[in-house]
Design goal:
The protein is α/β, with parallel strands linked by helices and 134 residues long. It has one domain: Flavodoxin domain (Rossmann fold, 3-Layer(aba) Sandwich). The chain is 38% helix and 22% strand. The chain is globular, with a radius of gyration of 15 Å. The relative contact order is 0.21.
Length: 134
């Protein structure tokens, strides 16, 4: 059994000042205070290209690095702004690239705990998100 868990945070947005990234950093600080090793994958800094199934055999380094970190993690915290009642396009794009984890052993997110954070400001986003939760 591992002596120290690794928690990887994936999130933020393409905005220069991202409230969802700020929330993710606070969550990772809490995990670190509890004794976990943490790694922050900031959507903006990753600068991922749009997912293209034709490049799965030779993905860019930014994609490989993200997938490797997520595969090695014991737990994940995902954080995204909510736009029109759903996750941001840049966050969805990052999730699309996780298809590459299908060839790993174990595949995809097997046995991983995923915590979710979302950040929204508009009443419409809150109402739409509430409908999605049900």
């Amino acid at each position: 059994m591992k002596s120290q868990l690794t928690v990887v945070g994936l999130g933020g947005s393409l905005a220069e000042h991202s409230n969802s990234l700020a929330a993710l950093k606070i969550a990772l600080e809490g995990a670190a205070e509890a004794g976990a090793k943490t790694d922050l994958l900031d959507i903006r800094q990753l600068s991922l290209p749009m997912y293209d199934p034709g490049t799965e055999n030779n993905p860019p380094e930014s994609v490989r690095g993200m997938c490797d970190s997520i595969h090695k993690a014991d737990g994940l915290i995902w954080s995204s702004p909510m736009y029109n009642g759903t996750i941001s396009g840049s966050f969805k794009n990052a999730l699309d690239w996780l298809k590459l984890l299908g060839n790993q052993n174990p595949p995809y997110l097997t046995d991983k705990v995923v915590g979710l954070i979302w950040r929204c400001e508009l009443r419409q986003d809150v109402a739409t998100t509430s409908l999605v939760e049900r």
